[in-house]
Amino acid sequence: HAYGEDDDPLCALRIAEGLVHWQRWNGPIRTISQLSDVVRKVKTAGDERGLHPAKLTLQALRSFVNGELEQMSAFLEGVLPLMRPGARLAVVTTRRVEASFVKSFMRTHEDSHPLFADCSPSRLKELYPLLQTDKAFAVRQACDPIWPTAEPNAGFGGRRAPRSLATHVLERTVRRQGEDANRRRAME
User: Is 74 helix (H, G, I), strand (E, B) or coil?
Assistant: First the structure.
């Protein structure tokens, strides 16, 4: 469920149970066709987007097997320390789960907002997980996500652009809280 785009966790559990049941009676699943048939039987409700019933399940399995979200995390964690303050990074996502991951990464690396200056330090750390680290940088969203144009011939060979395709622009910033903490440590 964590790697897929099905919003229904029960559906993911049913698919898993259906696959286990099929394998008990028929042995290991050896082809994509076999896996697709099981998923199609389990997913009785049609997809409102007109997708094949197994498409999102296969994408989730591929993402899990290839460690795609872990690779994205390692990339973002590795590249941002190398960037200078004010530098921007464009991250292109092709699936909702990837876009959600990038947004979550931004939220956990966001500097605290002055609006919350009166919060207790423990509450501030809950609201801004970056404050629990000693990272020397913060990340902010430089602009709203950029979506493909709706024009039919806009670089997709006459096909409609994928609905979930988006470009997220992240900007490395200097940590305000990190600077305050360093000043306090220097004064002690």
Answer: helix
